[in-house]
Write a structure and sequence with these properties.
alpha+beta; 2 domains; five-stranded mixed beta sheet; two-stranded antiparallel sheet; 4 helices; 7 strands
Length: 151
């Protein structure tokens, strides 16, 4: 799951500590504090609320089920879930974010998983074992007094 924000009509991941405007709260009053301790409320032009939030903590709240779509939407955020990867495929490249029916998904280009390499031959296994000892096949054959040709 990735926390994303829509900027210029495009969903993109967001990280770190950021200051965001809340879309659900607008104040129309302000408090005036005087040096003598008096406080007065007065009406003013509407202004938005800005909160500084840690996106890592927000992601943890979403993972823990404390925050959901409603809380994220207050800040213009969404939780993008990964598209499933079909059997025999693997992700490649950078992700993109798409929205379908109000749900944001993180998608990747996919490619076929290459087949596994063939198992080593007996000769390759012998050469690998000799290499661990620091000996080549030709050196072993010479030491044994053999010419290295199969009978």
């Amino acid at each position: 799951m990735t926390i994303v924000i829509k900027r210029d009509g495009v969903w993109e991941p967001i990280t770190g500590t950021v200051t965001l405007e809340r879309t659900d709260t607008v104040y129309t009053t302000r408090t005036i504090l005087y040096r003598d301790g008096r406080q007065e409320e007065e009406e003013c032009d509407p202004y938005p609320v800005r909160d500084t939030i840690d996106i890592g903590k927000v992601a943890q709240l979403v993972d823990d089920g404390v925050w959901g779509e409603e809380e994220l939407a207050r800040y213009g955020l969404a939780a993008a879930e990964d598209d499933p990867v079909p059997e025999g495929k693997q992700r490649t490249g950078e992700p993109s974010y798409v929205e379908d029916d109000g749900t944001v998904r993180r998608v990747f280009e996919l490619e076929d998983i290459p087949p596994p390499p063939p198992p080593p031959t007996r000769a390759e296994k012998v050469d690998a074992a000799l290499a661990l000892l620091g000996v080549t096949r030709d050196e072993l054959m010479a030491e044994l007094g053999l010419d290295g040709k199969k009978a």
